[in-house]
Amino acid sequence: MSKVRKSRVLVIGGTRGAGLLIARLLHQRGYQVRVLARNLAAAAAELGHSFEVVAGDLTKAETLPAAVADVDHIIFTAGAPSGRYAPERLVKATDYQGVVDTLAAARRAGFHGRFVYLNSIGIGTSSLAGTLINLLKRNTLVWRRRVEDDIRASDLDYTIIRVGFLLNRPAGERAVVVGQDALPLAPRNRIARADVADAFVEAMEHPHASRTTFEIVWGKGARQGSWNSLLDRLRPDPR
Ligand SMILES: NC(=O)c1ccc[n+]([C@@H]2O[C@H](COP(=O)([O-])OP(=O)(O)OC[C@H]3O[C@@H](n4cnc5c(N)ncnc54)[C@H](OP(=O)(O)O)[C@@H]3O)[C@@H](O)[C@H]2O)c1
């Protein structure tokens, strides 16, 4: 009996935080998972033998072609480190140029899958929290807004998921709001990393998530409805 091969997914940012949860969830669901890592030994120790770990660094474009070769989908959650100062040079190299170089490497490799990109809410709506984050991680929201235009202008299939403040809490505890308006960055607009992981894995192959941009934050009360039904309502971005 022939066995159907599950898709191979590259997770960029899969060594920590939301990206690590996404990599583990993909593996649990039977996908082949490749993780890009700056520190191979640390990533291999964290992930174990059933993950493929490839060396790479977003600020070194020449390391990206090997990572994107022969993958069916790419999930990108990497970013300049949160919670501490990052100069604009590093922010631009990671949050902007790193994405642009990944898209270019994927195109050159003949990639035909979906590029699923994690962005922050608040990239187009001014707020006190957004101003403070732009001061700490210099202009990160400006570069992250600009990179969305590059993703939409590329000829690749994509899904852009903007997330609220990230918390380390279990998935499924709270209602989730999936919206296509621009929420401000504010502490009330938050969500668990584990819910974000569910959203990425569900959106990656959901037909209605193709060429869409949407935002996810916790709503009020308990979870109702499946991710599938939430994503069914998405509208594609204007061309
Ligand atoms: N914290 C929040 O509330 C919040 C809100 C909205 C959006 N975000 C964004 O959400 C994403 C996930 O956040 P998180 O806190 O869960 O994870 P995180 O701890 O910020 O992890 C960042 C990931 O990016 C990778 N990375 C950074 N620079 C890289 C480079 N030059 N080359 C390759 N990989 C690189 C890191 O790899 P290493 O292990 O090698 O460092 C790590 O895997 C980030 O992009 C963050 O900016 C965060």
From TrEMBL:
Pfam family, one: NAD_binding_10
Domain NAD(P)-binding, residue spans: 13-207
InterPro entries named in the record: NAD(P)-bd_dom, NAD(P)-bd_dom_sf
Protein name as it appears in the record: Uncharacterized protein YbjT (DUF2867 family)
Species of the source: Bradyrhizobium algeriense
